[in-house]
Write the structure tokens for this entry.
Amino acid sequence: MIEIKALASSSAGNSIHVTDGRYPILLDAGISIDRIRKALDFQVSSLSGVLITHLHSDHSKSAKKLMEAGVDVFMSQPTAEALKLSGHRLHIVSDGQLFNVGTWAVKAFAVEHDVEVALGFFMASRGETVLYITDSGYVRQRFSGVNYLLIEANFDEQLIRENVAGGEVDRFVKRRTYATHMSINRVLDFLRANDMSQCREIWLLHLSDANSSEEEFKRKVQEATGIVTRIA
């Protein structure tokens, strides 16, 4: 049975703990190593691996510290170069690559963000699957057989327009957000475009403090899919 725990999910930091009951993985490490240690009951060495989507600090902050703690960390070459990481705990993965972390079979795939080679991950272990997508303007790939979907729902398009008109959000920030993050409407489009017939849970990630509504996002996804929806 897959268990998912959000350690953090916001512009201040992102990290999701996923386990199949035997091999725990961190999806991103964008919070301090002290917060990670505390969340894991100071058993960081129990991690089978850490998958880093891209170089931004709110996703990669503790990658180096985790490697120093003896944990294998997986990321793209451009991300490793930007973070100045090397060593035997570093594992370079690329778009379309299949690799293993414990019992997990993982496929990396490129997503659309404003860095070189940002990745998403589709993972399977013991007959169950997890799809992780964050910090992406949209997703080209199509998926089926997804049991647990973890997907960014950063902003509401109408709400961010209202915030720009009211002077609460800068126009440049709006343009960047539209280009590099998923709105709730794009999430709904993604759900319609992919086979979610085997999905048991949907986790909405990385909601903007100013440009989103937890209750509204959860309601829209549950009404559209009938699937249990959680806010990270």
Observations:
- DSSP finds eight helices and 13 strands in the chain.
- The chain has a mean pLDDT of 95.
- The longest helix spans residues 214-225.
